[in-house]
UniProtKB/TrEMBL annotation:
It comes from Solirubrobacter pauli. It holds the Pfam family Epimerase. InterPro entries: Epimerase_deHydtase, Lipid_A_modif_metabolic_enz, NAD(P)-bd_dom_sf. This is UDP-glucose 4-epimerase. The lineage of its organism: Bacteria, Bacillati, Actinomycetota, Thermoleophilia, Solirubrobacterales. Residues 5-230 form the NAD-dependent epimerase/dehydratase domain. Coiled coil: none annotated.
């Protein structure tokens, strides 16, 4: 069955990567991406519409293009990337607006995929060894970002309850890692030594960026109602991660105190957000059996993901000296797609 897909957050790394992946799928008939900013990756048959998350405008696009599958990739999961107010607007208000655009008895939408985060569970001293999808976080959110993620995730759950005819999939991803993925953990791992908190050696799972895209694609083309943890096989403590990266483990950050944020920043030279400091202290594990039982297969384990990242770090100088990054130009894109002078492969 062909699908008509709408991707929100096309200008985000995940929105662009997912669009590229869906373009390879002959089962996907139409791909429309929306965002307030230009796409950051080259796309061939994805149509781009520059709008935000205003539900009335989104609803018009959903109905006019007869969209049956909506994939929401916008969730901010690293508080370094946006001010708290911007993150709240995008994570909570934006999610509610998108859900409003998808609902209603006359809506053509039959599937919604929501890219969520393991920050939903938090990181605390008395956490279970592995969080299952049925578990609520045992403690209230510590940070505004975690609170926003819980609120957005719960809004999706409520939407699913109100719209039983729609297949709603929530994917809660563990920490992502990859050569082209830039987040707080990748910045820490690029340092000469891997910093840690004195007295702690936390457990980690890392999912490769290609497996994140693969899981989103899988959810878009498979009926997966409910919540699914997305984490590969294997768990590593942070000192093992450092060893695989070929770097010393340096647990020098102070474990307690209100000056921790300032001290940590001074010690390592970059900002360590609150949600990452919690992980550096207590770590986290996700039970991934439900997603694997559905038929999805991860390409890399946690160990292999870290090893692949280590190899990418060694090649980083060569990669950075390559061709210039992609830049979206509407006139050029329209010429390449629609001009009769351009020859396209049959």
């Amino acid at each position: 069955m062909s699908r008509r897909v709408l991707i929100t957050g096309l200008s985000s790394y995940w929105g662009g990567r997912l669009a590229q992946e869906l373009e390879k799928d002959p089962e996907i008939d139409v791909i429309i991406g929306v965002s307030t900013e230009d796409p950051n990756l080259p796309l061939e048959r994805t149509e781009f519409v520059r709008i935000g998350t205003h539900h009335a405008l989104l609803r018009r696009i959903v109905h006019a293009a007869e969209i049956d599958t909506v994939i929401d990739t916008r969730l901010i999961v690293d508080s370094v990337t946006a001010p708290p107010k911007v993150a709240h607007e995008q994570n909570v208000i934006g999610t509610m607006n998108i859900l409003a655009a998808c609902g209603g008895p006359d809506s053509p939408v039959t599937k919604v995929v929501f890219k969520s985060s393991a920050h939903y569970y938090g990181c605390e001293r008395d956490d279970p060894s592995f969080f299952g999808e049925e578990m609520r976080r045992p403690h209230p959110p510590r940070t505004r970002l975690e609170s926003d993620i819980v609120e957005a995730d719960d809004a999706v759950r409520d939407f699913a309850a109100r719209n039983p005819h729609v297949t709603v999939t929530t994917l809660r991803f563990c920490n992502g890692l990859g050569p082209d993925l830039h987040n707080s953990h990748s910045r820490l791992f690029e340092l000469p030594a891997v910093p840690g908190i004195l007295g702690f050696d936390p457990r980690y799972q890392f999912i490769h960026e290609d497996d994140i895209v693969g899981a989103l694609h899988y959810a878009a083309t498979t009926d997966l109602p409910g919540v699914y943890n997305a984490a590969p096989d294997g768990v590593l403590v942070l000192s093992e991660v450092a060893s695989l990266l070929g770097k010393p483990y340096a647990p020098l950050l102070p474990p307690w105190g209100t000056s921790l944020a300032t001290t940590a920043t001074n010690l390592v030279g970059i900002r360590i957000p609150d949600e990452v400091r919690q992980q550096l202290r207590y770590g986290r594990g996700l039970d991934h059996r439900k997603l694997k039982a559905s038929g999805f297969r991860f390409g890399l384990t946690t160990r292999e993901t870290v090893q692949a990242f280590a190899a990418a770090l060694r090649l980083k100088p060569l990669r950075e000296s390559g061709e210039a990054p992609y830049r979206y130009e509407r006139e050029v894109e329209e010429f390449l797609r629609w001009s009769p002078s351009v020859r396209h492969d049959e």
